[in-house]
UniProtKB/TrEMBL annotation:
<keyword id="KW-0175">Coiled coil</keyword>
<feature type="domain" description="D-alanyl-D-alanine carboxypeptidase-like core">
    <location>
        <begin position="241"/>
        <end position="349"/>
    </location>
</feature>
<protein>
    <recommendedName>
        <fullName>D-alanyl-D-alanine carboxypeptidase-like core domain-containing protein</fullName>
    </recommendedName>
</protein>
<dbReference type="GO" id="GO:0008233">
    <property type="term" value="F:peptidase activity"/>
</dbReference>
<feature type="coiled-coil region">
    <location>
        <begin position="39"/>
        <end position="87"/>
    </location>
</feature>
<dbReference type="InterPro" id="IPR003709">
    <property type="entry name" value="VanY-like_core_dom"/>
</dbReference>
<dbReference type="GO" id="GO:0006508">
    <property type="term" value="P:proteolysis"/>
</dbReference>
<dbReference type="Pfam" id="PF02557">
    <property type="entry name" value="VanY"/>
</dbReference>
<dbReference type="InterPro" id="IPR052179">
    <property type="entry name" value="DD-CPase-like"/>
</dbReference>
<dbReference type="InterPro" id="IPR009045">
    <property type="entry name" value="Zn_M74/Hedgehog-like"/>
</dbReference>
Length: 355
């Protein structure tokens, strides 16, 4: 059995460590490209690695189910082998019994002579008949024994091959899953290191590193709007504000591009809002906030900006319109009119076009 590789890895892919180093080089040199911080590329690489790991894990589980079925088939073959041995033993028994009977009633030379002369006794005739029967039984037993022997040999060979294939497949696929898991971990660590160098604060025990892991967004999505735990939210460079990991990483990339253009970071007045904060804003600013529990702020996917962006058709606002979508951020249609909120921007990973 030939076991194919689950995921083809690039022959000379750059190591995650090198990728992290390139983040600073690109940023320091102010090089071109859509993402001056290279974070989006790292995030997508992390997501790709996670997807490959997930697919490999599913394939491994599927293979294990197949192995379980093969083990069942193996047990069936071994049972068949045992039954074949039992039948073989039964077939040998009549020959053995006939031989024993012949031993008890031997046909000597005198018996054969009298049989040929036509005056053999009943005992002689019975003995001669037994000999004939033994010969027939023996011939039949020899033929059946040959067939059963071939069957037992085939079954034994198939059982051995099946067991060997199962062990080989399990070992190879487990090794591939481990390799992919290590690769995914390295990419996430490189992404975290790049975020740290760009000013994302991480405490001594590295808690924020987990918060900024884009692979945790599925877990974050499992919480109700406005009730996402703080350990599921990634801090921004703007102190006191946070977003869901993928939105935060994309925002940091956008923030770096904005800094290159205007010489300063974006001004943020609001990012993630808890349910209590949503209620407070809703009652303080009726008509300018979503119903509590329905705001994209409560999903960690929206920011309210200042520093010029909040002024419609300002240089900063126009720059955002022209560049934000490259990082997955956009100004929603409703915010142009009802209510009019030029400061409100949202993240959608589906429109993130940075390669």
């Amino acid at each position: 059995m030939v076991v194919t590789s689950l995921v083809a890895l690039p022959a000379r892919a750059a190591s995650p460590a090198k990728t992290a180093e390139n983040v600073l080089l690109v940023n320091a040199a102010g090089a071109g490209g859509k993402d001056p911080s290279n974070l989006t590329e790292l995030r997508k690489e992390a997501e790709k690695s996670a997807k490959e790991l997930e697919e490999a894990t599913r394939a491994l589980e599927k293979r294990r189910a197949s192995i379980a079925a093969s083990e069942k088939e193996l047990k069936t073959k071994l049972d068949s082998l045992q039954q074949a041995e039992s039948r073989l033993q039964l077939m040998r028994q009549p020959v053995s019994e006939m031989a024993e009977l012949l031993y008890q009633q031997p046909v000597g030379a005198d018996g054969v002579a009298s049989f040929l002369a036509g005056d053999a006794s009943k005992d002689t005739l019975r003995a001669m008949a037994n000999v004939t029967q033994i010969v027939r039984e023996r011939q039949h037993a020899v033929e059946q024994t040959a067939v059963l022997t071939r069957d037992t040999q085939r079954l034994a060979s198939e059982a051995q091959e099946l067991r060997a294939d199962n062990l080989l497949a399990e070992a190879q696929m487990s090794a591939e899953v481990d390799t992919l898991r290590q690769r995914s971990d390295k990419v996430v660590k490189s992404l975290t290191a790049a975020l740290v160098k760009l000013g994302i604060k991480i405490d001594k025990v590295g808690t924020a590193a987990l918060k900024c892991n884009p692979l945790r967004i599925a877990t974050a999505n499992s919480y109700p709007n406005g009730l996402i735990p703080s350990n599921m939210l990634c801090p921004l460079q703007q102190r006191g504000h946070s977003l869901r990991a993928d939105a935060a990483i994309a925002f940091v990339s956008l923030n770096e591009a904005y800094r290159r253009r205007f010489g300063r970071y974006m001004c943020v007045t609001d990012a993630y809002r808890s349910l209590a904060e949503q209620q407070s804003v809703y009652y303080r600013r009726p008509g300018f906030a979503a119903v509590p529990g329905r705001s994209n702020h409560g999903l960690g996917l929206a920011v309210d900006l200042c520093g010029g962006i909040e002024r419609f058709r300002s240089v900063e606002f126009v720059w955002m319109e022209q560049n934000a979508k490259r990082y997955g951020w956009f100004h929603p249609d409703w915010a142009y009119s009802s209510p009019f909120e030029p400061w409100h921007w949202e993240y959608d990973p589906k429109i993130d076009s940075v390669l």
